[in-house]
């Protein structure tokens, strides 16, 4: 069965696949890779180019070892759904941008690290990937629009990037910026948006164990529509904080004003921590729709990650921590 369907989790009948089934398949796939079987099977199952980029030189790095410290008591969202229902305003202000996003050119890709750091640098994405300890984590993702998913991201802890950057003691924030190129991203011709897409974290948030720089999804390089080649996953915060297709990390002592805060500061603030009891101005945040199962489920404080992050905020007074 596996030999016939190595990518079984993409198939509609496996919508109800459980975490353990995914993990078992993954182990078997890794075993086959070791035995040199993957390539021949892979070529027998051509993938739509929206879901895997054959030209991506990082493809050989995946799958990466699972870090099972982060448990999710929910079904994984089918890959097909997580890669066809997206928010990426650079390619349109609706959910079906996965085809338009294929225009994004992800090589060569240079990441700039600047501001309050020991030494500013420009680093090629493949050099960065080679330096970083890649692992896989199953994370929840909760959009401020009250939908959510659970996916296996691959990537590395953001604290490793902070270590590489070596911020000076005056740095308090790290600002992340998406690429800007109107020729690839039609959304960026909509001049009323404050491009490039920008958001940030405090250094304390960025170096929290949970904070993950994502480079892959479902054991493969990250699809363009999900923010290739590098995006953020800070899963206790709403989805709009998870900057996609990052080209720049700037360390600074000034709190950044994000893309969404610039547009609608009353609704989208800096902290944006998930809290079912703090409604959005226009809707409740008490529950969310799982885009995999279609079910409505209760939203959890800090999206269920309070044990890792609640302490960061315990002495903060007068901050709008939950919007
Ligand atoms: N550059 C950029 N990053 C972005 C967005 C965007 O429009 N542009 N949308 C954000 C929002 S609102 C969400 S919910 C997530 C969606 O990630 P996904 O498409 O991988 O589910 O990306 C976030 N990162
Ligand atoms: Mo979102």
Automatic annotation (TrEMBL):
Transmembrane region(s): none
Key words, A-Z: Metal-binding, Molybdenum, Oxidoreductase, Signal
Keyword Signal among record annotations: yes
Recorded catalytic activity of this chain's protein: L-methionyl-[protein] + a quinone + H2O = L-methionyl-(R)-S-oxide-[protein] + a quinol; L-methionyl-[protein] + a quinone + H2O = L-methionyl-(S)-S-oxide-[protein] + a quinol
UniProt cofactor note: Binds 1 Mo-molybdopterin (Mo-MPT) cofactor per subunit.
EC number: 1.8.5.-
Cofactor: Mo-molybdopterin
PROSITE patterns membership: TAT
Post-translational modification: Predicted to be exported by the Tat system. The position of the signal peptide cleavage has not been experimentally proven.
Tagged with keyword ATP-binding: no
Gene Ontology BP, a term: protein repair
Residues at which Mo-molybdopterin binds: 86, 89-90, 143, 178, 226, 231, 242-244
Domain of life: Bacteria
Matching InterPro entries: MsrP, OxRdtase_Mopterin-bd_dom, OxRdtase_Mopterin-bd_sf, TAT_signal
Gene Ontology molecular-function annotations: metal ion binding; molybdopterin cofactor binding; oxidoreductase activity, acting on a sulfur group of donors, quinone or similar compound as acceptor
Domain named Oxidoreductase molybdopterin-binding: residues: 105-260
Task performed by this protein: Part of the MsrPQ system that repairs oxidized periplasmic proteins containing methionine sulfoxide residues (Met-O), using respiratory chain electrons. Thus protects these proteins from oxidative-stress damage caused by reactive species of oxygen and chlorine generated by the host defense mechanisms. MsrPQ is essential for the maintenance of envelope integrity under bleach stress, rescuing a wide series of structurally unrelated periplasmic proteins from methionine oxidation.
Subunit details: Heterodimer of a catalytic subunit (MsrP) and a heme-binding subunit (MsrQ).
Sequence similarity: Belongs to the MsrP family.
Matches recorded under HAMAP family: MsrP
Designated name of the protein: Protein-methionine-sulfoxide reductase catalytic subunit MsrP
